[in-house]
Amino acid sequence: MRAYLSACTIYRDAASYLAEWIEFHRLMGVERFFLYDNGSADGHREVLAPYVDDGTAVVHDWPMPFVGDGGRGLALRHAFDHCLRAHREDSRWIAFLDIDEFLFSPGGDPLPRLLPDYEEYPGLCVSRAEFGTSGHRARPPGLVIENYVHRRRVKPDDWVPVKSVVDPHRAIVSLGPHTFHYRSGAPVDEEGRPVDQLDQRGVKPVAWSRFRIHHYWSKSQEELERKSAQWGSLGAARETLGVRGRLHGDVDETLRRYGPAVREAIARRAGESG
Q: pTM here?
């Protein structure tokens, strides 16, 4: 059956985060997940097995090295392009996200309830909030959405990065992790303003009252350091961004309210598979 909203991501050694990411987005109304494994050596297959078995998730092996493209990697762009080709008929909308990004509506509405307002456009660009370590040196127990609550302070006239929710029939190719090239027309932000896909800065002023992405870029300081080392091993060295990694601007506990439901869903799924 064709889904209305699906999500696509590429990951590597993210077994301990996959269930939270999937179950959170299922609560938001995402029906299917197109996942690209970039050479994981952890227990990701075991975590994903129940989702694969019931058709919720499709996993593609994607060992292409992350090289070039300013450090972001051709592997990601080609994975997104493959998803467009392979799953064009499987979903009305596909959200292209990272495994540390959580898409939701601040008003609490299921995403499929809001997206029909944008069906005339080839894509929707969603503004992103950047979260840091919240003072955690080591990874704390519990969920990402509960543990990390400090984000960069954003002024109304700031540029904010976006990620894309696209109509796979009108999207031609990925231009990078944030934007796409479309057959006709321009994608818009939640207010219906056209977004320049060649301007990787994102949108200005900030628009995130209907749709928002929380980007848990660093998680704990130790995980940030491991992440930097992992990117280096993939041939795409990244700065550790000490200032960005801390990001102690505003306290934002918006997603904590979903913690109990996400934990319950994870436990239920584990019980069913066990």
A: 0.92
Give the number of other CB atoms < 10 A from CB of residue 89. 8
Q: Pick out the chain residues at pLDDT < 50.
A: 69-71, 241-246
CATH number of this structure's domain 3-273, picked from the four choices 3.30.70, 1.10.760, 3.90.550, 3.30.60 = 3.90.550
CA–CA separation, 215 vs 102, rounded Å? 7
164/162 Cα distance (integer angstroms): 7
CA 147/CA 89 separation, integer angstroms: 37
First-last CA distance in the chain: 27
At 186-204, the pLDDT tens digits run: 999 999 999 988 876 677 7
- According to DSSP, the residues that pair with 131 across neighbouring strands are 151, 216
